[in-house]
Hints:
The first copy, chain A, is of the alpha/beta class. Chain A folds into 2 domains: about 10-90 and about 275-295, 3-Layer(aba) Sandwich (Rossmann fold); about 90-270, NAD(P)-binding Rossmann-like Domain (Rossmann fold), CATH 3.40.50. Chain A has 10 helices and 12 strands. Chain A starts with 11 loop residues before the first strand and ends in a 14-residue tail after the last helix. The interface between A and B is large, with 48 and 48 residues. Chains A, B: It comes from Dietzia natronolimnaea. Chains A, B: GO terms for molecular function: NAD binding; oxidoreductase activity.
Amino acid sequence: MIPTPGDAAALRVAVEPTRDPHLVAAVEGAGGSVVPLEEARVLVWIGGPDGVPALPDHVEWVALSTAGIERFVAAGVLDDRRTWTNASGFYARGVAEHALALLLAGTRQVVRSAHTRWAKDAVDPAVRTLRGASVAIIGAGGIGRELVPLLTACGARTLAVTRSGRPVEGAALTVPAERTEEVLAQADHVVLAAPDTPETRHLINDHTLALLRPHSWIVNVARGPLIDQAALYRALTTGLIEGSALDVTDPEPPAPDDPLFALDNVVITPHVANPAGRLTEEMAGPLAENLRRFVRGEDLLSVVEFGRGY
Amino acid sequence: MIPTPGDAAALRVAVEPTRDPHLVAAVEGAGGSVVPLEEARVLVWIGGPDGVPALPDHVEWVALSTAGIERFVAAGVLDDRRTWTNASGFYARGVAEHALALLLAGTRQVVRSAHTRWAKDAVDPAVRTLRGASVAIIGAGGIGRELVPLLTACGARTLAVTRSGRPVEGAALTVPAERTEEVLAQADHVVLAAPDTPETRHLINDHTLALLRPHSWIVNVARGPLIDQAALYRALTTGLIEGSALDVTDPEPPAPDDPLFALDNVVITPHVANPAGRLTEEMAGPLAENLRRFVRGEDLLSVVEFGRGY
């Protein structure tokens, strides 16, 4: 049988720089075969921008394994001669789970408890419930959409901010990005899940922090630069907001003597919402789905909007 | 109008030892009036066993505000001349939220992160997801039943243990108490939500810990004595299980030098799953419901099974 472009048999995929077994299984599960780059129509690249090889013209699609691709953009790796996909949506469910873990660790005072030894009198009055709370999700893309049902199960009301303002399923309200402040003014807590772009940089700053409440928690599972960290430190130490739970910081890693580490109303996890150790395991399913779409000539998931940088 | 026993106007309720405004509002919302104990058919008692007054025979029902009533039993306060209710079910939703917070703080390594400063290499490989995990709920009464939908939203499968084994809605499996070990052997994680009785004391011991897995977390939002804490310490320090998140300890409070405090795979919150500061606020709604049931002569919620001690 001579393969035609629409055949899975024509699905020749390079998995580089290492032939990760989870991703090899995904390729084979989609009916494709893993081949050297010289023969490939698709490159699955599990790594950063350094070392991306020169791409032959027959590579029609590069599937990157990272959620954020700022570093690829900065390194000038992307081109407009083929399709590029990132993996942001692929890890969305896990990142949403981490966002919930951080929000609950904050509001239920789990971390303040960890910093003390049975300081019941200090901890008890500060424990809050998500039932009836309004939680703003800034950037309700893949992660945000996965977070909505988790918050809903906990009895919270979700206020979603998306670029377009197109309604997010399950959210009590969705507004476009230019109405972010309106949502912050109504929110008990805020979860940042937006990409790092010139528009979102320092979205949380002295001005927007002042819109929040003394009991508010801010969770960041997106990118550190979304928060003006000096402004956050001021807000956390003056009681403007109650706390912040961060999986990302600016810079990253933070300096070992970053003053945020010393605050018991700050929760920091070391950028593990999408743990590297489980990355290819998590990516395998969505990659297989994208490979099947590729074979059928359908739109791929998580295509990079060239020029926007995400 | 002369009140008859079925009339809300006959609902004369003492709220003692202090006339808490949330509970006074609940009484009035149910159509009743707050009166001194000498005139009361119902006593709402917000406190411990010390100071419970001698009860006139016209007090038909005592509504206690605590979830566990071991101390009332030990003090000999309960009698069989009237109905006693505890408040365990009333706080179930909040306690379930706390159980989820503890489980996620453990499995997502939030607390290990808090004990270190951006120790990414140590934290990343240990981060787990609840998606696809099996979580045993030991004692799927009110708290357990509220926890099931939260775990389900996170993609976990729930294995419920109840006294009777009557199926718990949403659980993949419900078994009676005598089959607890069967469930422990299948579980990734365990949440303890059972009352403290002779049957449940040291339910988690060297033998049952050995049924669990090296990645297992044990969460206790029930009572400290359900766990043989010396056995738990051994399991935590030998890698038999991965971690434990405890809102209750044995004894309570723990000694300031309790060795559990020094472990970074232990999460301890100071018995705040049902925070005292929000107790009457949380109790108000269910109390109003019970008062309406009392007026209509219907079965009350959360009646103490006299002799069983819960």
